[in-house]
């Protein structure tokens, strides 16, 4: 049970990092 929660939390963190990277790239391109 805890493993699932921790796994989802890690995925969420990775997703947020990806969004930050995407925003940074878009800002650079503009």
Which descriptors apply to this entry?
30 residues; mainly alpha; rod-shaped
Question: How would you summarize this macromolecular structure in one to three sentences?
Answer:
This protein is mostly helical. The protein is 93% helix and 0% strand.
Structure report:
The structure is a single chain. The protein is mostly helical. The chain has one domain. The chain contains one helix and no strands. The protein is rod-shaped and about 45 Å long. The model has no long low-confidence stretch (mean pLDDT 91).
The end-to-end distance, rounded to whole angstroms, is 44 Å
Instruction: Write the element-wise H/E pattern from the N-terminal end onward.
Output: H
Structure annotation, total helices? 1
Assign a percent range to the helix content.
Answer: over 70%
Percentage of residues in strands:
under 5%
Radius of gyration: 13 Å
Shape: rod-shaped
Largest sheet: none
Helix-strand makeup class: mainly alpha
* Whole-number total of structural domains: 1
Detail the poorly predicted runs: none
Average pLDDT, rounded to a whole number, is 91
What's the count of strands? 0
């Amino acid at each position: 049970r805890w493993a699932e929660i921790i796994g989802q939390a890690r995925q969420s963190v990775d997703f947020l990092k990806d969004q930050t990277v995407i925003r940074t790239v878009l800002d650079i391109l503009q």
